[in-house]
Amino acid sequence: MILAITSGEPAGIGPDLCAALPELSCGARCVVLGDREMLAARVRALRPELAVIDYRPDGPAPSGALEVCHVPLAVPVRPGQLNAANGRYVLDVLDRAIAGCRSGEFAGMVTAPVHKGIICEAGVPFSGHTEYLAEATGTPLVVMMLVGGGLRVALATTHLPLKDVPAAITRPLLTHILRILDADLKARFGLPAPRILVAGLNPHAGEGGHMGTEEIDTLIPVLEHLRGEGMHLTGPLPADTLFVPHTLDKGDAVLAMYHDQGLPVLKHASFGCGVNVTLGLPIVRTSVDHGTALDLAGSGKADPGSLFAAVRLAQAMARGELAA
Length: 324
Description:
By secondary structure, the chain is an alpha/beta fold. It has two domains: about 1-140 and about 280-324, Isopropylmalate Dehydrogenase (3-Layer(aba) Sandwich), CATH 3.40.718.10; about 140-280, Isopropylmalate Dehydrogenase. Helices cover about 35% and strands about 20% of the residues. It is built from twelve helices and twelve strands. Helix 7 (about 170-185) packs across helix 8 (about 215-230). The two termini are about 20 Å apart.
């Protein structure tokens, strides 16, 4: 199995994390996509004992070396110093990984962090990996799920102002999201009958309509309809008591209604080793749960734990195995 590892923003910690990949023993062949000389320079600075070799699709898997699929930079880079001239390069790296996944060359892709602002400064509107991958694969709706600390938490809405969340959660959207979540938990996580815990939107899940009617108007009808299709759904549950062991033991994944309802709990449980997963794509994609950390780039202080966890999860998903 070959996994494509995109090295992300070249001035950030992505290349540093990739330089640590030969330390990971997971059974998959990890190929780093990025500029060969930039990656070799980072390896020389941080892990001079490692060799950097060119990727050959039909060649043998290397041992104790960093295997690189070369995608050229526009201009040389220095750690910690962003340059908009390389904004298009970051997308070229993603495009190579997407093409390889779609052709079957790669079993999945794992993404190191990118800097959205510098890509936009390069003249390319870019709102994030997830949206870019959805458009590139012709996927009308994808679902963001974070995995770590023994939890799987998917989101009904992602980066929206809180005031816009209630109107965004419609019956058609929630139905589509739950179908994607159920299907990928089966196909990618090896769960034949996934149990999904669904959080309410309002405090106390609306308290019977006294604290909001979204549960009555939207969530409950959707859940009842999908239960009729055979889905195993519990909820809507009050979010303040959903994340306790007694309740979590009854589910395989949680669907939170908005970003800060579900992710603070997961990041408390898994910060530094959490994984971002994009569900609904025709390809496997996982990512680190942190940013570019420009202040750490080239210092040797970046922790590769989240990248390692993302690689292991991508491998399990590509095999359709039960993944924590």
